[in-house]
Design goal:
The chain is an all-alpha fold. The chain has one domain. The chain has 4 helices and no strands. It has helices spanning 7-50, 57-78, 94-128, 141-169. The longest helix has 44 residues, at 7-50. The protein is elongated. Mean pLDDT is 88; it is low at 1-10.
Length: 170
């Protein structure tokens, strides 16, 4: 099988796939947050009506929120939605700002990779020791592993945005 087209076209196709994956992961995170919100409403209404809410609701909210936050980060980076401050670079040349953005994307990729690595180690430890939540005894290692995978994907997305930024400067 041969790859046709220039390197930029192939990178563009890979970038399109990464963008689609980032969107799908963010939509899944949104669905998880929506389900969590529904569960919180049911729990609050149940407490009000029946003096008893959904057992372990706070545990499920904690786990779902952690997973959802990591689900949103790749799309945010892909769309360059992170907060930035340009007070000192407002009047700098465009090439300088692109170079600086490239540098910070690479730094972000490095930190995301570091976080993914440490989360993966924590996940494997939690899975092997069968760590679970207090009330529902939910195994927490799998949620930690999911966040590790999404942090690794964030590192890839940040590296790709750095490469794209660098190529646009050329």
């Amino acid at each position: 099988m041969s790859l046709e087209g220039t390197g930029d076209e192939v990178a563009g196709k890979a970038g399109d796939v990464i963008g689609r994956i980032a969107r799908a992961v963010a939509v899944a995170g949104g669905a998880l947050m929506l389900a969590t919100a529904v569960m919180v409403v049911v729990s609050v209404v149940s407490r009000w009506l029946f003096k008893s809410g959904v057992k372990g609701d706070f545990e499920m909210v904690q786990i779902a929120t952690a997973v959802a936050v990591f689900a949103f980060l790749p799309l945010c980076q892909w769309r360059r939605g992170n907060v930035f401050v340009d007070t000192f670079t407002l009047r700098a040349p465009a090439w300088f700002n692109r170079s600086l953005d490239t540098l910070w994307d690479l730094v972000y990729a490095g930190f995301a990779a570091l976080i993914a690595w440490r989360l993966a180690l924590g996940a494997f430890d939690a899975i092997s020791s069968r760590t679970s939540s207090m009330v529902l005894a939910l195994p927490t290692g799998w949620a930690i592993l999911a966040t590790a995978v999404m942090a690794a994907f964030l590192a890839v997305v940040a590296a790709v945005t750095a490469i794209r930024r660098y190529r646009s400067a050329s």
